[in-house]
Every structure is written in structure tokens, then in C-alpha cells.
């Protein structure tokens, strides 16, 4: 187990996850503009139906991916996810009405739920406990760097060649390459999980003694969602993080366009936030292995809230650029570390299913964000929607500070240090 023993597979999974992120990034800049300029949609709530469809589908598929990964193996689930994605770019290119776009996002949600969840689970399988934060940072950084670069690239392609079809051809290429790599080179990782389960040692403070290997599906869901303090705090923080991302995905391009920004300028802002997020995770995951998880998550949620407040106040490219970078930095402090928390607490025997439950709640945030931000924007305007999400994000950070305990323990820690 660990990086040195599995360097080839780590590198491959990082490349595959970059392609997964790029598959999602093909929509990031172009689709909100397509909704407004090609389909002439009226009302922000209706416009955000594609985010809602994506979020609900991805959240449900995340849960199933964890269960299926334990039942059928990791690799078959990964390959199935890529096969589901094959029609998506073509549907977006040829969509005669908005219903086609929503249907494409249902398929995209299934693709992202199966592929991204599986690469995360496989990465956790290979990583071992000592450097779990670093490995989560690497895999998530790859995905969101791919998303950011693709969002920027599609913005430039759309400015030069139009909103369709050229930007979506890039996504089609990602899907073909990702499927080929997953079928031919990726290998199964379940044996690593069995090895870790055989070597599993309980915490010195006894906190996880009730989280044994024989939990039922219902108990895993209940512990991850509500009962276990660290798991449930991580789940709500993940939901709020993606609630914010649903707002950024669906409404930020329209907010920037209303201020007179060009398509390429909107693409740069749409890319800056996930770019900082992606690159930042290279450092924040490893930092959590050294400093612990809880403090960084709390700071990250509050930083996101401050960045959203700045976006609501600003009206120039420069200030929005600073705010987007802060939003990315705050997200980088949260995103991979929440997954590391799940890996810290969940027993190896049911960890994949716990990851599925966590990602169910986390990506359910896309749907909640689409509903909340759409309704608020329709009633009170775009900036009011940003303010509302900033307030929710602040509350989430305070919940983490109050409820989560430190989950990362080192061999040199005493039992007293491990107790919150």
C-alpha cells in the first residue's frame, strides 16, 4: 500500500480523473450562455433545471457506486460510467430544445457519479492511512484542474467558433480516451482493501469501537448522515460546498454577462475558481496529514463564505477575479479533506459504501443549490442569491467547528490528544 508501491496506478488514476473533470468542464462556461442566448430561457429557476437534474442523478449514483464497487469490483463500475457518457456531447451539440440538455445532464450525472466516485474509492484503497489526505488532494486536484482547463478552453472556443458544436467536441475526445484507459490499463484494487481490513487497528481512545466491520447498509447510512459526529459533520459540509458550486455553475456566468463581460472573460472567471481549487488541493490534502482535518475544513468553509460575499458586492472583472481565487482556495481547504475524514473514520470493510453516502449528500448540494439560488434569484435578484448561499456556508463552517472532532491520528499522538 502507499504511493511508492502503486505509483503507476496512482498516476493512471490521476490522469483518468483529469479526464472525468474535463468531461464535466465542457459545460461550465458554455451551457448557461446557451440557455440564455440560444434557447431564450426566462427565469433563473427554469434555467437551473440542468444543474438540478445533474445534481439529483449524480447524488443517487454516488450512493449506488459505493455499493456496486463493493459488490462487483471497482473497475466494472468505472467502465460502465464512461459508457454512459458516450451520448452526452452529441446530445448537447444537436439539442433542438432544452429537454435534450436536461436529459444529457441526467446521463452526465450518472457518468460523474460512477467514474469519479470509483476513482476516489480506488485511490483510498491504494493509499493507506498515513498519507490519505495527500492522495485525496492529488486525485481531486487532477479532476478540478481538468475541469478548470476545459472551462477556459471551451470559453475561448465558443468565442471564436460559436457555442456549438466545437466546445463539446473536446468533451467527446475526453470520454473516448477515458474509456480506453479504463478498459485497457486500470486494474482492480479490492485486494488492497482486504489487506487493510486485515491489518486494521482501532483508535487508542476507543472512539470508533462501535464502528465495527459488520454494519448493515442502514447503519452505514445512518452513521454517515446523522449519528457519527465527524461523518455527519463532513456530510453536511460537503452538501453546502456543492450547494455553492451549483450557484457558481448556474448563475455566475449570467451575473458576469450582465455586467458586460465578454464570453472569453466569463470563461476565464469560470476557470479561475476551479483552477485555484484544483491546484490548491495538491497542498491542502498533504497539509491535513500534518496539521489535522478539522481546522482546515472550518477555515475553508468560512473563507468560501467571505469570497461569496465579495462576489455579491463586486461589479468588475478584477474584483471578481480576486473573489474567484479566494473561493477556489476555500474550496481546496475543504474538498479533499472531507473525503480524508470519511477514510479516517469508516472501517475498510464498509468504507466504499460510506464514501457513497457522503457523496450522495455532497452532490445532492448541486440540486439544493439549483433550487435555493434559482428561487432567490427569481424573487430578489442574482446578488441576493449569492448572499443567501454565503450565509448558509457560514453556518456550515460553524457546525463543523462545533460538531466535528479531529479524525487524523498519528502514531506519536497520545490517547488524550486524540480526544476532542
Automatic annotation (TrEMBL):
Pfam families linked to this entry: MFS_1
Single GO MF annotation: transmembrane transporter activity
Segments passing through the bilayer: 41-65, 77-95, 101-124, 136-159, 165-186, 251-276, 296-313, 320-342, 384-405
Gene Ontology cellular-component terms listed: plasma membrane
Keywords carried by this UniProt record: Cell membrane, Membrane, Transmembrane, Transmembrane helix, Transport
Matching InterPro entries: MFS (IPR011701), MFS_dom (IPR020846), MFS_trans_sf (IPR036259), MFS_Transporters (IPR050171), Sugar_transporter_CS (IPR005829)
Protein topology in the membrane: Multi-pass membrane protein
Top-level taxonomic group: Bacteria
Domain Major facilitator superfamily (MFS) profile as annotated: residue spans: 1-408
Subcellular location: Cell membrane
PANTHER family listed in its UniProt record: INTEGRAL MEMBRANE TRANSPORT PROTEIN, RESISTANCE PROTEIN MDTM, PUTATIVE-RELATED-RELATED
UniProt-recorded name of the protein: MFS transporter
Amino acid at each position: 500500500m502507499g504511493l511508492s508501491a502503486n505509483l503507476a496506478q496512482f498516476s493512471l488514476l490521476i490522469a483518468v480523473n483529469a479526464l472525468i473533470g474535463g468531461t464535466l468542464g465542457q459545460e461550465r462556461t458554455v451551457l448557461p450562455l446557451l440557455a440564455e442566448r440560444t434557447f431564450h430561457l426566462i427565469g433563473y429557476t427554469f434555467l437551473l433545471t440542468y444543474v438540478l437534474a445533474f445534481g439529483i442523478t449524480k447524488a443517487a449514483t454516488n450512493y449506488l457506486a459505493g455499493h456496486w464497487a463493493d459488490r462487483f469490483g471497482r473497475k466494472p463500475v468505472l467502465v460502465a460510467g464512461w459508457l454512459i457518457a458516450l451520448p452526452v456531447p452529441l446530445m448537447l451539440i444537436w439539442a433542438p430544445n432544452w429537454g435534450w440538455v436536461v436529459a444529457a445532464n441526467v446521463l452526465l450525472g450518472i457518468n460523474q457519479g460512477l467514474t469519479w466516485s470509483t476513482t476516489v474509492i480506488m485511490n483510498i484503497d491504494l493509499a493507506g492511512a498515513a498519507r490519505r489526505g495527500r492522495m485525496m488532494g492529488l486525485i481531486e486536484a487532477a479532476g478540478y484542474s481538468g475541469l478548470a482547463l476545459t472551462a477556459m478552453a471551451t470559453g475561448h472556443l465558443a468565442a471564436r467558433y460559436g457555442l456549438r458544436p466545437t466546445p463539446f467536441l473536446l468533451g467527446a475526445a475526453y470520454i473516448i480516451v477515458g474509456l480506453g484507459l479504463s478498459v485497457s490499463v486500470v486494474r482492480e484494487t479490492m485486494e488492497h482493501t482486504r489487506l487493510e481490513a486485515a491489518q486494521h487497528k482501532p483508535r487508542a481512545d476507543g472512539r470508533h469501537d462501535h464502528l465495527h466491520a459488520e454494519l448493515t447498509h442502514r447503519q452505514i447510512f445512518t452513521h454517515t448522515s446523522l449519528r457519527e459526529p465527524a461523518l455527519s459533520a463532513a456530510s453536511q459540509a460537503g452538501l453546502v460546498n456543492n450547494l455553492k458550486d451549483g450557484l457558481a455553475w448556474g448563475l455566475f456566468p449570467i451575473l458576469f454577462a450582465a455586467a458586460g463581460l465578454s464570453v472569453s472573460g466569463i470563461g476565464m472567471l469560470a476557470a479561475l475558481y476551479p483552477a485555484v481549487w484544483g491546484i490548491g488541493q495538491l497542498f491542502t490534502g498533504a497539509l491535513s496529514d500534518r496539521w489535522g482535518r478539522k481546522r482546515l475544513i472550518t477555515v475553508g468553509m468560512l473563507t468560501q463564505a467571505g469570497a461569496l460575499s465579495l462576489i455579491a458586492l463586486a461589479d468588475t472583472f478584477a474584483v471578481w477575479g480576486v473573489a474567484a481565487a479566494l473561493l477556489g482556495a476555500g474550496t481546496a481547504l475543504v474538498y479533499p479533506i472531507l473525503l480524508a475524514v470519511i477514510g479516517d473514520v469508516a472501517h475498510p470493510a464498509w468504507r466504499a459504501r460510506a464514501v457513497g453516502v457522503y457523496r450522495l449528500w455532497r452532490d445532492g448540494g448541486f440540486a439544493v443549490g439549483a433550487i435555493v439560488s434559482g428561487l432567490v434569484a427569481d424573487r430578489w435578484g442574482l446578488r441576493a442569491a449569492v448572499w443567501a448561499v454565503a450565509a448558509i456556508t457560514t453556518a456550515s463552517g460553524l457546525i463543523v467547528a462545533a460538531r466535528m472532532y479531529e479524525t487524523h491520528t498519528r502514531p506519536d499522538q497520545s490517547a488524550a490528544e486524540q480526544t476532542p
